[in-house]
Amino acid sequence: MSKSADERGRIYLPKDVRERFGDRYRIVELPSHVALFPVDEDPLEGLRAAVGDTFVETDTDDLKTDAREAISREVQAEADARSQDGEE
């Protein structure tokens, strides 16, 4: 499928795509292209549907805390790598 952006940068998705995947998407910029990923109306419910009962007894707040801590570690590691690259 090929689509062009209008003069304001908007891309219109066909009705059948919106019906299958919804109206909300995350835009992810990759080195060689841009990708659209559907976003569930309720992201936690979408996650539960994807992983089944894996997290049934896990508190939502614990999942959020774990995710935030993981993101913080990744950001810190990237910052450390950039500072090391700058020192060389």
TrEMBL record:
Protein source organism: Halorubrum laminariae
Keyword DNA-binding carried by entry: yes
UniProt name for this protein: AbrB/MazE/SpoVT family DNA-binding domain-containing protein
Single GO MF annotation: DNA binding
Keywords noted in UniProt: DNA-binding
